[in-house]
Amino acid sequence: MARSLIHPVVLSGGSGTxxxxxxxxxxxxxxxxxxxxxxxxxxxxxxxxxxxxxAPPLVIANDEHRFLVAxxxxxxxxxxxxxxxxxxxxxxxxxxxxxxxxxxxEDPDALMLVLPSDHSIGHRAAFVAGVERAAAAARSGALVxxxxxxxHADVGYGYIRRGLPWPGIGGCFTVAEFVEKPxxxxxxxxxxxxxxxxxxxxxxLPAGLYLKELGRRDAAMVEACRRAVAxxxxxxxxLRLDASAFTAARSISxxxxxxxxxxxxxxxxxxxxxxxVGSFDALxxxxxxxxxxxxxxxxxxxxxxxxxxxxxxxxxxxxLGVENLVVISTTDAVLVVPRSRSSDLKQxxxxxxxxxxxxxxxxxxxxxPWGSYRSIHSGERVQVKHxxxxxxxxxxxxxxxxxxxxxxxxxxxxxxxxxxxVTMLGEDQSTYIPIGMPHRLExxxxxxxxxxxxxxxxxxxxxxxxRLEDTYGRVPKS
Length: 478
Hints:
Elements: E1 6-12, H1 40-47, E2 58-62, H2 66-75, E3 82-86, H3 92-106, E4 111-116, E5 120-121, H4 124-139, E6 143-148, E7 159-165, E8 173-179, H5 184-193, E9 196-206, H6 207-217, H7 219-230, E10 233-235, E11 238-240, H8 243-246, H9 254-259, E12 265-270, E13 274-275, H10 280-286, E14 295-297, E15 300-303, E16 309-312, E17 317-320, E18 325-329, E19 334-338, H11 346-354, E20 365-368, E21 371-379, E22 382-389, E23 397-399, E24 403-411, E25 414-418, E26 421-425, E27 430-433, E28 439-442, E29 449-457, E30 466-469
Parallel strand pairs: 1-2, 1-4, 2-3, 3-11, 6-12, 14-16, 15-17, 16-18
Antiparallel strand pairs: 4-9, 5-13, 6-9, 7-8, 7-9, 8-12, 10-11, 18-19, 20-21, 21-22, 22-29, 23-30, 24-27, 24-29, 25-26, 25-28
């Protein structure tokens, strides 16, 4: 691989609760098609898909999202350099440290283009031009961040003030100051000053220089990440970081850990149509509006309404006489909030967490490596699911302590293991899985298998699964 190629490092570890109920813990915003038919992760990866400029991406993801991330990369025909799994989120500084260690082991002069996977960029040509300027500065010894040219006084972003020009690189400056998220009055002053930019969270970094600067202030983090990489295990297409080593690294952002302290910090100002897609108001800003300023997504009927974001993921959403609202309808939740307060969902999420609401965790449709399941009904001592097993899909050999299961095949042919017995079930045939019996469901055919599962018992949670064997690496290796 040519040393001149830039290595995209795509960070995909976030949970995106600010966009609930679209975004859930098991299906965060970067994995959702919020602005196009592709997810934000897919858009991010395709943005750096030019093989003449960029190496294949190195993707760092949450372990719980691994199959969704892998499937989305497969859908767009991208094979990453590595798909690294964090056993626990530790913020951006350790994640980037892991990437730097992996890349510098192959190429001591590697340049990393660090990209959050949940941002939107409207002007790709301007983005690539900014990356080229940043790469030139990085090759001259800079740790480069991108400053977004602001068009209004936003209190939701941190700011960067540019200093003197970076020697020999047009359009690049030293960093004079990092500013925390300001209040409205200060944000207006920063905008008027003309030399402040929004902090984008994107970087071009020489891997070796990043490790050196991080090591000056937090040698323990570098050592923890080094041990996590050294003891990492290959698991199919994944690289699993060693859990005990990686979680020893403190959780901190790259800004706090390195950029605010190093003398090598530089900023490249860019105007690239950027958004961090951090609120429903941001989705409204980015959306296609009708003549009254409404953005309607999905099955929406709207009349005599203005400047609202209306989105239906399930069924008809009808709005009459509303202004400046966000209305989101999913299969199991409805959110109504003033657009001006759409970035303040934290207090609502905290209340739902206190109430133990399962709607924070997952949508009724849950993707799995073997297919998917949808919860149809949930009541006392009973739950009904529609299970779809894709061709070649194979659930784990498992048993349950507290529930029995009744299976009815409604389409396709399933191979069913019950204890020592293996049978084939066709359409309209059924079987019963008692509590404690080892069992497995497989699809040996070329078409999806559709099955209705009725669970009965004293506890019906997903954590009442004891896996004995698993094709997808979900059984801990002894």
